[in-house]
Predict the structure.
Amino acid sequence: MFTINTLIARIGVVCAVVAITGCSSTPTYPPAPDRVAGSDWNYKLGPGDSVNVFVWRNPEVSGSFPIRPDGKMTMNLIEDLQASGKTPSQLARDIEKALSKYIQEPIATVIVGGGIGPYNQQIRILGEAGTPQALGYREGMSLVDVMISVGGLTDFADGNKAYISRIMEDGKRVQLGVRIEDLIRDGDSTANVEIRPGDVLVIPESLF
């Protein structure tokens, strides 16, 4: 038969175990690799990007044009052209094809004016970062680059229990542990890992 003292004693034991072992229910993840096997990466356009289109000898159809939230763009003589998910070169070829109805053998060049690319290539930072946000991926991007962009950790972050959610080549999403506190507070360069397009960095709150 339980008494109040027995219940208090059992609660004390549980608390002591938690204090010694930490939060045992917190998931642990395999460490993220320092470098990822090389794969060809080309910047792809996304909603919110702005592109400068130059059509040789046809300045009247050239100009700067935004990509709409639906992933399409409208430019002189062309309406609702799909742009999101394409490289600038692919979009240039599509523009040439569309303009060929009006211009003989058009030659188009597309230059990215600004933006962060399509959603599936953006880097998302969630949780206890200074300014959680989505970032455009840049070739050679590392964890320290991401942390500089988001202003480091908050005072409540458990940076060494953070993880990256990454889609692998087989299409499966895995969780890989990272040591952000060791990296930015202790200067441990071995904790700096490569970031890949589409990574989601999750920084949990410390329980203690």
Remarks:
- The chain has four helices and ten strands.
- The longest helix spans residues 4-21.
- Confidence is low (pLDDT under 50) at residues 4-26.
- The first strand starts at residue 50 and ends at 55.
